[in-house]
Amino acid sequence: MEFPLKINMYCPKCNKHSEHKLKEWKKGKRDFMRKKSRFVYGKRFMGYGANRPKATGTKKQAKRFIALATCSICKRKVYFKSATRMKKAQLAQK
């Protein structure tokens, strides 16, 4: 995905607008030893072959772009989320 490397936005710690560096945010690896994960995949769906029921509906065509913005002055990190869902081609035009 193409997105700007720097953006001017409000920093709540500095209490003013400053330049922020943008870095694409990605989900971390899931921890399957957590209590909730053991519950969901082990006990909750017993009788269904321990598998989750299939989700119904259609797949979303595009995602909202999420980035981690770091303030150039105080180095505070803030999540930056795009206002609308965008396809990869639309992000390249921006």
Features:
94 residues; alpha+beta; four-stranded antiparallel beta sheet; elongated
Can you put this structure into words, describing what you see?
This protein is α+β, with helices and mostly antiparallel strands and 94 residues long. The chain has a domain at 1-26 and 63-84: Roll (Nuclear Transport Factor 2, Chain: A). The protein has helices at 35-44, 88-93; strands spanning 6-11, 16-24, 63-71, 77-86. The protein has a four-stranded antiparallel sheet. The longest helix is centred in the middle third of the chain and has 10 residues, at 35-44. The termini are close together. The model is unreliable at 89-94 (pLDDT under 50).
Q: What profile does the largest beta sheet have?
A: 4 strands, antiparallel
Taking the alpha carbons of the first and last residues, their distance comes to 11 Å
Spans of at least 5 consecutive residues with low confidence: 89-94
Strand order of the largest sheet: 1-2-3-4
Would you report the number of β strands?
Answer: 4
In CATH, the architecture of the domain at 1-26 and 63-84 is Roll
Mind telling me the C-alpha Rg? 19 Å
Output the structural class.
alpha+beta
Counted by DSSP, the helix tally is 2
Please state the overall shape, judged from the principal axes of the Cα atoms: elongated
CATH class of the domain at 1-26 and 63-84: Alpha Beta
> Helical proportion?
10-25%
Topology pattern, helix = H, strand = E: EEHEEH
- For the residues shown, what is the average pLDDT? 76
Strand content: 35-45%
